[in-house]
Write a structure and sequence with these properties.
Chain lengths: ~110, ~150
Amino acid sequence: MSLKDDLLPDLEPRYQVYLGIPRQFIPWYPTIDADLCIGCNKCMDFCHDTVYAVDLAAKKVIVADKWHCQVYCQSCTHACPKGAITFPDRADVKAVIRELRQKYPAY
Amino acid sequence: MKTEHNFELGFDKFQLKVPQDLYYAGYDTWVRVEGENAVIGMTDFIQTKVGDIFFFNPVEAQALEQDEVLGTIESIKATVDITIPVSGDHLEFNPALKSSTELISNDPYGQGWIAKLHLTDWEMDKSMLLPANKYFELMQEKVKNALDD
């Protein structure tokens, strides 16, 4: 199996890999606490990678394209006035990425 | 474009430089290795994202691991985390940024450096970093995407 075989075909090329590693193997993306979200859309306004979308029925923001999230970017949390957005522990994700680096060599 | 020391790309009002003697993280920070120590900063690309920076808030730490948050910068557009590209201890921040945060944008590879530290895991950290030519390719892609937005 090559790197190309492991890429998600439905993702735009710019979102398919992170440093040569298939993006979908890296568990870095936001989670929104729906009970805290007030649907202000400030996270959507901040993020240019269309990670977020609006659930019109619930009048809240949802994570629509989690693999669009830039690895280690969590600056959208600063935009949320309610602290509704959380991310995985960086150390855990780093361990996963370093393990994947063994399979997908550096440039 | 490639000059003697930099890769360069014009974007909007910016002339974005990528010095060839540095290593880069995908999240737009650079590291200059000086023996067992290193200097860290943000790349030219960040100014296109955040605009004028008016505040830098460093974390309170003496040591950090690669990919941890080094601090936050605030601009008129947004508050953005800065992620550290290498692991190290004896961390010290650029004292000039207390009064002159514009240095981060105006001289990102010189007087606008963010922090210095003693490297503790350089060989492993390096495997997760990009050489200048690869980061320049990534930055070109980011610029293209910014133009498409």
